[in-house]
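note to self — DONT lose this again. spent like an hour looking for the file last time. sequence + predicted structure for the chain T wanted, 219 res
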Amino acid sequence: MASPRIKICCIMSIEEARLAIAAGASALGLVGRMPSGPGVIEDALIAEIAAAVPPPVATFLLTSETTADGIVDHVRRVGTNTVQIVDAIEPFVYGRIRAALPRLKIVQVLHVSDAAVIDEARRLAPLVDAFLLDSGNPTLAVKELGGTGRVHDWDVSRRLVDDVGRPVFLAGGLRVDNVARAIETVRPFGLDLCSSVRSDGRLDPAKLGAFFAAAQQSA
């Protein structure tokens, strides 16, 4: 099995983007306004970072917008090539996004709380390019839409990977000491991480290197 692609999320600067790419990242996560969670930066900075990232590295805008107009406007402001939709949206919204931005890749976040997420993924699979499985809780008064650092039930995630026929990124509590088990259990297309490769809030080259080495050795 090929090594999973690795997406480093919560990128805060062009310097961090370059550091992640040098370590081997295939994608970078740029966090727009959120109700909670780490890594939020202004849209102007997202646009600056996205413009500096060379192909074929993917730039993911994490947006909490839930309307077609809101999502399309957000992507147009920042110029990323991928949108990561962190909240639930109505099914018809995907079609409107594609009509407005036909080259944009759409990644839908699903929060794994129980096996019902598999049915949700089946329903949405024809509408999206990929899924990202995380460990948030969108039912709270202040929604948790990512960045919790918690591990969810990877057995459910593996069943979803086997069932839906779409690339799946695995997020939620991935660390150098559990990435081998994550890859073996879930067999994801990609891995997504933020806090475990940071020290004092900043991207840490040593932690990045250790994580990439562990992931590559495990595949």
